[in-house]
Amino acid sequence: MVSGSNGTTSFMTDFLQKCGGYSVVDGGFATELERHGADLNDPLWSAKCLVSSPHLVRKVHLDYLDAGANIIITASYQATIQGFEAKGFSTEEAEALLRRSVEIACEAREIYYDRCMKDSWDFTGSGRISRRPVLVAASVGSYGAYLADGSEYSGDYGDAVSLATLKEFHRRRVQILANSGTDLIAFETIPNKLEAQAYAELLEEEGITIPAWFSFNSKDGINVVSGDSILECASIADSCEQVVAVGINCTAPRFIHGLILSVRKVTSKPVIIYPNSGETYNAELKKWVESTGVRDEDFVSYIGKWCDAGASLFGGCCRTTPNTIKAISRVLSNKSLPSANLNIQM
Q1: In a 3-state reduction of DSSP, which class is residue 106?
Q2: pLDDT per residue over 55-82, tens digit each?
Q3: Among candidate residues 238, 242, 133, 89, the one with its CA nearest the CA of residue 178
Q4: Phi, psi of 79, rounded to the nearest 5 degrees
Q5: Distance (Å, rounded) from C-alpha 250 to C-alpha 33?
Q6: What is the pTM of this model?
C-alpha cells in the first residue's frame, strides 16, 4: 500500500515500468460467476456471491490471474452498506463483507503466487525469485449501480440527488475499502460529472492516502453516458491528487480509440481502458442483448491501436472472459519494454 502524495504520484508509473510499460486488467466478473453457476438475479448482483459463494469469487480471481492479469478488481462493485442493510444485514455485517471482498482477492493473489512457486522456479541474476506484479483494486460502483435500475448506464439520478447526497452515500464504503488492505481503489463506470466530483471531494475530505483510478462510461464516444463532456469529467480526475490513472470502462470497443484521445487532451496520467463486449444492457429485462458484440479475437485486434493512442492499462468489462484477457496479455507481451524481461511471467 502507498501513503503520502509523493508515493501516490509515482505509484502507477512505477507499476507500469515493472510490468514492462503496459498492464493487463482483469475482465467481466458477473459473466464468469454466472458461468460457474451463480444466480445473480438480485439487487446485490455480483456482490451476492460475497455472502453465498465466496469460493466462486476466489475462483474467478484465480482464473484471471492465470490468464495474465496484473490487476484484479474486487467483487465490491455493487456492494454497498445500504444495499446489504436492505437485505437484512446489520451495518457491522455489511462493513465486514466489504472488507471480505478485498481479503478474497488478496487470498487469490497469494494462492496464485504459491502455485507459481511450486510450478516454476525462475531466478534473476541476483538469485531472487521474480514474479509477475499483481495489484488488488477495490471496486466502487456508482450510485446508479446501487439503485439497480440501469441508471449507471444513463447517469440520470434526478434532481433530488445532489453532490452532498452522493458524498454521504459513498463516504463510509470508501473509508472501509481504503483501510481494507487493498492496493488502490477503482471508481468504475462513473456516469456523470457530479459523481466524479463527489469522489474527488471525498478522497480529499477523508484524507485517503492510497491511489485510485477514475473510469467513465460512454455510449457515443464523445461524452459520458449522462451527456456530460468526457473532457470535463477527465479534468476532474486529473486535478485529484490521489488519482493515478484515468480512463473508460463498460463501453463498446468501437468508441474507445476516440475516447482515449479525448482523455489524453486533459491529463498526462496513465490511461486505463476496459471496454465491454460491445453488447447493450437492457435495464427492463436486466440482461445484456446482442448489438455489435465482438468475439474475443476481434476485441483484441483493437489493442495495438489503443496503445498507439496512448493507453497503458488494458482489460475487459461486462461479457468479457479470461479468454479475452489471455489474448490481451499475449498481445501486450509482444509490445512490452525490455524491462519486462525482469518480471518473468510464471
Answers
A1: helix
A2: 999 999 999 999 999 999 999 999 999 9
A3: 242
A4: -95, 105
A5: 17
A6: 0.89
